[in-house]
Amino acid sequence: MSILIEIVDVVKNGSNIDSSCQKVSKEISDRTLTFLQFIESLEEILTSTDKDIRLNGIKALVSVLKQLSLDFFASEELEYINKFLCDRFIDHHSFVPIVLQGIVYTIQMKNFSKDMIVRYLNTLMPHFHCQSQLQNDRHTFYQILHQIFLNRLEDVRFMGPDFLYFVISSMDGERDPNNLLLLFRILPQFLRNFPLGHLAEETFDVIACYFPIDFYETDESKITRDELASNLARCLTCVDEFADFCIPLALQKLEATLKIAKLDSLYLLKLCCENFDPIKIKLHIEEIWRILKMLIMSDIEDSTDEVREAAIGVLTGLLYSLDIIKGENNHEQLSNFLDIILKSSHRFLLDTQATLFIPSIKLLCSVGKTSNHACCKIANKVYLMLLDKSDVSHIEIGRIIEAMGLITNMCLQMSIDLSSIPGLETKWEEICCYFLLYAQNDLPEVKISSLKALRISTKILTKSQRDNYYCIISTLIASNITDHIRQETLLCFKEAAKLYKEEIIEVIDSNIKVLNDSNDIDLKSKWLNALCCLGNEEYFFSLINNNLCANLCEKEKETQITLKCLRDLVKNTDNTKLLNHFALDGGLLNFILTTWINGIKDCANYEVFRNEIILEDVSFVINSVIKSIDNSEQLQIVNQYIQYFNEIVNTTINYKQLSAVKQDIHSYMIILLESILNSLNQNFKLDNVILLIENSIQLSTYSNISICNLSASRLTATLINKYIDSEDYNVLDKLQINLVNNLNIIDNSYKKNVINQISWITKALALKGHNRMLQWIDWSIQLLADPMYGKTMTLCFKMLTQTDNGYLNKECFCSVKLLYRQRIFCYVIEPLITKFNSMPEPIKENYLICILYQMDGNSYVTLAPYFSKILPVLLQLLSPDQVYVLQSLQTFRNLLESKTPILEDHLQSFIPKLLNISQSSKYMNIRIVALQCLYNCCDYSLIKLLPLKKQVILELGKCLDDKKRLVRKEVVKTKSRWLAIDVLKDDD
Amino acid sequence: MGLDNENPTLFDKSEERKVSEKDLDDNETEEFDSREIFDLIRGITDPEHPLSLEELRVVDQNLIEVDDNANIIKVLFTPTIPHCSMATLIGLSIKVRLLWCLPPRFKISVTITPGTHASEHAINKQLDDKERVAAALENTHLSSVLNKCIATA
């Protein structure tokens, strides 16, 4: 019982009530203490004459209550608690908040009876003025309502309008968004299940006064305007009784100028159409249409696309609603309204060239998609109207065809057979004939809209029409057409291939046969291109495979065009399945590898097998296919082909001592080897990696063929990145010593190769975050000082910031550390700047170029800490006599484009320099970039720009008479932007 | 919604001017020509519709006359309907755009294509009056409408 003595003390002092109460309620739940004993111990407190002590008593009581389970009390016990809380409620106004909390909890209890609820309400109704309470207490009260709405509505139903009145009067004038959101969420449940009677209008008014929601979100607010608006709209449309008030409200607010009000009203209207009885909607239909028409069918500026789309949404809602009116002539209502819509759009359909022609057609299409009846009616009317047009110009034909395509699309989506549309029984075939006819028209616009329409209607073409259609497609594929038309033609081809596989196979076969006998390279390329666009249709896989193989490797030209098609094909991510097909036994991959390996080894046709362009494409294709297949298939390919590379993989190569023939064979073979090994999964174990690396370095250093140098040094980098771990630093140190030796002893002509190899290895280590990375970077910085090959070394610093799509990235299973670029930047930038400032003239440049490369490759966040050091270098460069002004200007423009904040403080030092360059530089490119810099300056804050505006406008005026037109164009753009910087916007 | 012309006829836009080899050569000089002037004004928005003057065929390259050596530029524009109340505003925006974007050596004249507007003489006179053009730019409301039209050019 010590706990009871403790609690009495605690309650008297009024501190730390909650934790003691926790103990008490635990004992009560464990039945070691009864609730009665607890109340009795509080007797002195609860009957105290000091209201503060009484308040503490109630707090303790409620706090204990709240921690007991909902089924703890029997109904007799609850009866007492209920009476007690009612008494305390009217005892003193300061007790209200805590009693409300008690009520919320007790009302949820299992044994709480109807009488008790009525007792609560009878106490609350005369004595409680919700809006004079604090926000939290109001929230508690609304929670009480929520509980009643959820579970106890039957118990209060007998109170009828009194209860309803109590609810609406307590929420009337509520301003807190959190409370409103709660109310909007709980009200629909209540309103739907409680008779509104004569209070319907009052109820509606109390809710409607919040429409449209006027609420500005801040970063702290947890609720959004949209949430409030959508819940409010749901409240306003939850019962049919509201229809008579709600529709006029929505229509009235729709005429407001604020866009948000318009959108809200349209949303409300849409909900009205969905929720209210169609009979009620019908009464307002003409009024709604009058306003919708204005929003949809006008192109005045404030009716933006968003509003227009919302309005169309309402219209379709309206039509759905009309469609479900049942009765003897259930289409009558719908028909009448459709007539009204058709009548309003009629005049816009007359002039095909006018602005509103296509929007009206689109509107009718969305109307037609609401019901089959509407679809038939509209299709009938529009088709006949369009078919009847005669004596039309070419531009108009394009638009008519486009419109017919849209309408056909509508019919197909509603699965309406064109021949079943009244009035079209005989004419429907004519429509597709028009499409076919105009697809052969010379005007590109007409052609494109006809092709689009044909693609839509592929399904409904008759057999003879289809034959005609294939002819047209074949002719188009073979002829010289613009890219846009070709794209459209190929889409048609694809669609047809999807629906009529056998027929398309025939078409292809007959055309390819002709091709194989002819020598027309151009035509061949067009057909192969068309074939390749079917890369995601499994049915055509072997056809594509065979045709591509047949055209590879015999003649130089054919091989080139085939590889070009293949390159595009493998780039397209839709074609992954086809790539897997290529990797199968007897597939394209095997064919290419076998042919080229043999071709290179046998020193066959040099024009095909040793052509650099072809080899690059071949390597790209092999690489892409291998990248797309899974581990086991990769393993199989490597095991199958690695034997052909035995000399490179398993024996030490000493390039200089090889015969010339061997030298060449090795040089070309390494390109193929790279393409196979490049995208292998990292867990794939290669034997003799170190030997292979050394051989690659030999090849990259001594080979005379540039594509081979590149492949070999890239392969070295890839292998080091994948297979040389941080523990294997011996290998790297050995490589470094070799490379240093090479640099010192070999001919100058090879030194460039060695430098490139060093760059690639540095990049590989940097990507991996290898622990020898910094050592190699230091070495690279040192090499910059060399007068002979320092310039080549600068490329290393460019390479370090760039990512190559096909090589040394995560898709090729290389290890790439997060933020490696930033790490390198932070490491190199200070040494580079120091060297730039201290080195003599010609070498200085190398460091400068590296600084610019590094800056270009990194964002402002990385640059920021070093900016105070970089900026002087940059400003020094901004003078027309500097050699590197173009490059530094471009870097500068990138900085301005990304709104680098620190530059804002230096506007006045560099804007005059930029103006000077844009007037006096001899080179148009420099003038143009300077002007673009000035253009981007306008992103900074107005207050910094205004003092400079006058000078800039004046100086730019002088540039307007530049002799180059491209410069003048840039001047006009920049000057207009500067003129407009202080123009007030609408929303200001 | 008292629009003068609520459903105007639309025309196709011409393609962007192609950049030729000569344009990229630093030693060549290109004179101002009618296409360049047309490019300056074709993007101006009509005050009534969110459409450009080119789409409404209010301005046309064939109705622009340029003499670079004599420093003369003459632009004719065609209102969409003969009693268009916006004609002055359109003319003004063309004129202002050209004043801002061309070197001051040019004498610029902007007039209505003869016979296409009910009060063409009055409007031509207004547009030719330096004082009145300057005064229009001082007017806050007018200049904000003008800025809106020109902003898209």
UniProtKB/TrEMBL annotation, chain A:
Source species of the chain: Cinara cedri
UniProt xrefs under Pfam families: MMS19_C, MMS19_N
Cellular component per GO, a single term: spindle
Major location category of this protein: cytoplasm
Biological processes per GO annotation: DNA repair; iron-sulfur cluster assembly; protein maturation
Function: Key component of the cytosolic iron-sulfur protein assembly (CIA) complex, a multiprotein complex that mediates the incorporation of iron-sulfur cluster into apoproteins specifically involved in DNA metabolism and genomic integrity. In the CIA complex, MMS19 acts as an adapter between early-acting CIA components and a subset of cellular target iron-sulfur proteins.
Classification lineage: Eukaryota, Metazoa, Ecdysozoa, Arthropoda, Hexapoda
Domain (MMS19 N-terminal): residue spans on this chain: 39-297
Quaternary context: Component of the CIA complex.
Subcellular location: Cytoplasm, Cytoskeleton, Spindle; Nucleus
Family that this chain belongs to: Belongs to the MET18/MMS19 family.
Gene3D superfamilies: Leucine-rich Repeat Variant
Name of the protein in question: MMS19 nucleotide excision repair protein
Keyword Repeat: yes
Domain MMS19 C-terminal: 561-935
Key words of the record: Cytoplasm, Cytoskeleton, DNA damage, DNA repair, Nucleus, Repeat
InterPro entries: ARM-like, ARM-type_fold, MMS19, MMS19_C, MMS19_N
From TrEMBL, chain B:
Gene3D superfamilies membership: 6.10.250.1280, Fe-S cluster assembly (FSCA)
Compositionally biased spans, kind Basic and acidic residues: 12-22
GO CC aspect terms: cytosolic [4Fe-4S] assembly targeting complex
Single biological process term from Gene Ontology: chromosome segregation
Region (Disordered): 1-29
Sequence ranges assigned to domain MIP18 family-like in this UniProt record: 36-110
Keywords recorded for this protein, A-Z: Chromosome partition
Superkingdom, natural source: Eukaryota
Similarity-based family: Belongs to the MIP18 family.
Record's protein name: Fe-S cluster assembly domain,MIP18 family-like
